[in-house]
Amino acid sequence: PVEHVVEQAFGEGLRGGVDVLGLQRHSVADRPFLVHDFPLEVLGIYSHYACLGWLNGLAVGSVFAYCYYVKAQEANVCNALPGFIQLSWTFKFVYGAVQDAFPILGQHRVPYIIGGWVGTIALGLVIVLFEPSLSVFHYACVAAACEFCMIAADVACDGLVVGLSAREPAA
Q: How far is the C-alpha of 8 from the C-alpha of 121, rounded, in Å?
């Protein structure tokens, strides 16, 4: 089952032979996954969590200042925005069930990771390009949709990490 999860995530290149970079790969069953091995494929997982933490912190940490100082809204409105933007994190378990129940092109993880990050980047560009004309409500809605896309990618990546952690040797 673990090999199936890894195969879904990384394709046939991890099973053995030569990958797209021309590097010799070992079979998943040949050796356990160890952090100090640091295969190239795991770099994407680390990058995902680094970008997710950075963007999430930036979105939540800056929204009050943007609302209060740039858009000159009342403090009570600006205090509510971080909670509104992060409301979708409450339903993270539902996204996991949906991703498991509805594979895209036969895969449960990779399409959701790619789609989540494409949506995050696209909605981030909407905020950057149209910020002067967005009201605080519209800004908050676009930021909440951006958070939703980050969650879609995060849930899929969490499932991938659970599959990879099953390969670790028992202590």
A: 24
Instruction: Please compute, for residue 114, the number of CA atoms within 13 A of its CA located in the half-sphere on the CB side.
Output: 9
- Backbone φ and ψ for 86, nearest 5 degrees, come out as -95, 10
Name the region of 97 (left: φ>0; alpha: ψ -120 to 50; beta: rest).
alpha
Model pTM score: 0.72
Q: What is the pLDDT of residues 6-17, one digit of tens each?
A: 555 555 444 444
Q: 24 - beta bridge partners?
A: 18
Q: Is the dihedral of CA 49, 112, 21, 42 positive or negative?
A: positive
What is the secondary structure of 14-83 as a DSSP string?
A: GTSEE-TT--EE--TTTS---GGG--HHHHHHHHHHHHHHHHHHHHHHHHHHIIIIIS---HHHHHHHHH
Q: How far apart are the first and last CA of the chain?
A: 21
Instruction: Note the Cα 103 to chain centre separation in Å.
Output: 17
104-140 tens-digit pLDDT:
988 888 899 999 999 999 999 999 999 889 999 999 9
